[in-house]
Write a structure and sequence with these properties.
The chain is α+β, with helices and mostly antiparallel strands and 754 residues long. It is 56% helix and 13% strand. The protein has an eight-stranded antiparallel β-sheet, with helices on one face.
């Protein structure tokens, strides 16, 4: 009876959490917290579930120490959460320079926000927003203040991921005033909940590792299973792939023969630096992203991205007639009878009132956001990128380093001496820019255009060489290092995701068919036995090299967006496969196929691969550890998914596949547990709240709980049956899909930048 109640409550908790994330999307975060996460009945369900779970463990006289420690850690974590809920104080304090403040706006469930008094006062001395050199991208926010506690005074400072504690109050950088003379700090006083919760986390980490190495535990017994020594047979795996659009490289049309720069000249243009996406990078990077965003490919009719970009800059009228804008299928395309690729001039017609989609775009921003108007806004976005390029607004290739402080005026904020600003030829320059530099910035592209129209390419080449030298002299410390520059040029030359997804899927199917041949014909091909593991290693090294390049370029671990996280999952899949394929040969097939599909997803979904500056709050070692461990768990769970599909299709080998799946499942749960709760520690350090019921963390917890069910084979013997296990583990992968894709694209939350 107790077991049934526990099972019902367990399912109820999962359903309530999933429902709350959906309700949050429609009703807002405050509503979801008030009526679900913070509701008395939700807390009661957790409390009863924990109490009954403890009672059931005692009743069954469980003696496995690692199991007892693991379940005890969950109870301690829940106790810490309860203490935080009933005793913690949270709020915001607004500081202005030179003005002592001893009150803050505290969060109150009934009244919303109310003013409360601190047992000390704070006086802001200085606020500083530190920028990445030469850009407007913020590297960090910092507030320096004096703490006045009776007759005692002390100096304090907070910045992103750097908190300050006084008595039981912890201060976090939250926001700031636009004039730079005020700062908003988050306040969190939780002297009871945090220590208890962290104790639970520590015990959880110990017990998860202990679970893998405990001689009496299920995982060690599984490793000794004779089923693994027999090997896993594989007779068929039917995989279908949709049509993959291939882009044909054609020679430039006659209209463009006289409207492009020679390849070598365009390449020199691509070697220049530009301020793009809040960082300094080669113009080549901007050119590639321009082509991919507008045309959907890295080149156009055999022309390089640099030739395309320079063509739009210097021969804009000719290029305006080229079918360069990719039009996706949709209601608007059908209604307006648009081709797959349209020219810029297609959307400008005097007889139809000028900008033909202008009305639809305006309606979109006025609230009509159906599929038709969404497509209008998408096309308008592409047109705006082209227009900004033609006008010169996006060509921020001309740096200037100010030698003295510049007072703030209407068009320009305060500029500190030594600051480098990158200008476009059409920017309004501050008067502090020296006349010689101002003339160069304003006129260099006009002079370039004259030589290009005259066909004097030797002078154009000289212009680009001199412009690069000008950048080196005038850019202060804002240019990337020589190593970063070379790394980015290499990264631009090789689309790693595209190359490797084709290679890995091809080799995966070869390995699959060879495995079938080997098992059915009882014969082996020595050349393939040697070649396939080597090729897996080569692919792994190539992906490692690609990720290393992105790390060098950005200075951040490459997990900051969807594209990079897909590459990282593929990397972990290949690493696991390489480590395990000597013991279990079939893992190599999984490694090729699964990594190939992850790389394919990053390719066909057109996740934006642009490298940019990381948000200050994300610049933390804990975040890097959190994301990398979570990615490892996803990689392991994807292997259980493949085992599940095969187990359903190949029922005669269900037991062997179940054993293999469990080999991946236990470390997957370990890494997922580590990842989730290291993320909680990072959140507490960053903004003072270790668990905020954000949609992503909620679905990560749901996923952890769903997969944890199948390791309870003693209390749930139904999961000892291979077919039941495989069906469950296959369906469980839907929670991974929801956590990774569903939250990002359908729900809301703080993880939208991830």
């Amino acid at each position: 009876m107790v077991k049934k109640i526990i099972f019902i409550l367990y399912i109820l908790v999962l359903v309530c959490m999933a429902a709350a994330t959906i309700v949050e999307k429609s009703q807002g975060t405050d509503y979801a917290h008030a009526h679900y996460y913070g509701a008395w009945w939700f807390i009661l369900i957790w409390a009863v579930l924990a109490a009954l779970g403890a009672f059931y463990i005692i009743k069954r006289k469980v003696k496995c120490a690692s199991t007892l420690a693991l379940h005890l850690s969950f109870i301690i974590i829940l106790l810490g959460a309860l203490l935080t809920h009933v005793s913690a104080k949270r709020g915001m304090i607004h500081l202005r320079i030179g003005q002592p403040t001893d009150t803050y706006m505290a969060q109150d469930e009934e009244q919303g926000m109310k003013e409360e008094k601190l047992p000390f006062s704070l006086c802001l001395q200085k606020f500083e927003a530190k920028m990445h050199d030469g850009t407007n991208a913020v590297a960090d926010y910092s507030s320096k203040f004096t703490v006045i506690d009776g007759d005692d005074k002390s100096e304090g400072e907070v910045s992103m991921n750097n908190i300050y504690s006084h008595r039981s109050y912890r201060l976090y950088q939250s926001s700031y005033d636009e004039d730079g003379k005020g700062s908003v700090l988050a306040i969190n006083a939780d002297p009871y909940g945090i220590p208890v919760t962290y104790t639970g986390y520590a015990l959880l980490f110990i017990s998860l590792v202990w679970m893998l190495f405990d001689p009496k535990g299920g995982y060690r017994k599984l490793l000794k299973s004779p089923l693994l020594k027999k090997g896993v047979l594989m007779t068929a795996l039917i995989l279908s792939m949709g049509n993959i659009q291939t882009l044909h490289a054609e020679s430039a049309t006659g209209n463009l023969q006289n409207a492009v720069l020679p390849k070598e000249t365009a390449e020199k243009f691509g070697e220049l630096h530009i301020l793009y996406n809040d960082r300094i990078c080669p113009v080549q990077t901007f050119a590639l992203d321009f082509c991919k965003k507008i045309y959907g490919a890295r080149s156009y009719q055999g022309l390089t991205a640099e030739q395309v970009l320079s063509g739009w800059v210097f021969y804009g009228n000719t290029w305006a007639n080229e079918p360069f804008i990719k039009i996706k299928s949709g209601e608007m395309k059908t209604a307006m009878n648009l081709p797959d690729y349209a020219s810029l001039n297609t959307f400008f017609n005097r007889e139809m009132g000028g900008y033909t989609i202008g009305q639809y775009v305006q309606e979109y921003y006025n609230g009509q956001q159906d599929k038709f108007h969404q497509q209008a806004a998408d096309i308008d976005g592409k047109i705006q990128i082209i227009m900004e390029l033609r006008e010169g607004v996006s060509l921020k290739v001309l740096p200037y380093t100010f030698t003295k402080n510049v007072k703030a005026i209407k068009d320009h904020p305060f500029i500190k001496a030594g600051t480098t600003t990158w200008f476009s030829p059409v920017d309004k320059l501050p008067q502090a820019v020296e006349q010689q530099h101002a003339l160069y910035i304003k006129n260099v592209f006009s002079l370039l255009n004259g030589d290009i129209k005259a066909g004097n390419m030797s002078r154009v080449n000289e212009f680009f060489v001199k412009m690069k030298k000008y950048q080196e002299v005038s850019s202060g410390n804002s240019l990337p290092t020589a190593t970063q520059y070379k790394a980015e040029r290499i990264n631009n030359a090789f689309p790693f995701a595209t190359i490797l997804f084709m290679a890995n899927l091809t080799l995966g199917f070869i390995a699959l068919f060879y495995t079938i041949y080997r098992m059915t014909k009882k014969r082996e091909i020595k050349a393939l036995n040697i070649a396939l593991p080597i090729l897996l290693g080569v692919s792994f090294l190539a992906l490692t090299f690609g990720l290393a390049l992105r790390w060098i370029i950005s200075g951040n671990i490459p997990m900051s967006n969807g594209y990079e996280s897909m590459l990282t999952v593929a990397w972990f899949v290949m690493l696991i496969s390489i480590l395990m394929q000597l013991r279990i040969r079939i893992v190599m097939v999984f490694g090729f196929l699964i990594s190939g599909f992850f790389l394919l997803v990053s390719h066909i979904n057109q996740m934006d691969p642009a490298i940019g500056q990381m948000m200050p709050v994300l610049n933390s070692p804990l975040l890097s550890i959190h994301v990398s461990i979570i990615m490892m768990s996803y990689a392991l769970l994807s292997l259980t998914f493949i085992c599940g599909i095969m187990g359903i299709c190949l029922r005669s080998h269900g037991e062997e596949l179940q054993a293999l799946s469990r080999i991946f499942l236990y470390p997957a749960l370990t890494t997922m547990g580590f990842g989730i709760f290291i993320g909680a520690i990072w959140a507490n350090v960053s903004w003072g709240n270790y668990w905020s019921w954000d949609s992503k963390e909620t679905w990560a917890l749901i996923t952890f709980m769903i997969y944890a069910v199948v390791v309870h084979t003693q209390s749930l013997p139904v999961f000892r049956k291979p077919l039941v296990y495989h069906i469950y583990i296959t369906l469980a992968f839907l929670s991974i899909a929801m956590t990774y894709f569903g939250v990002n694209y359908f729900l809301t939350g703080m993880h939208s930048y991830a």
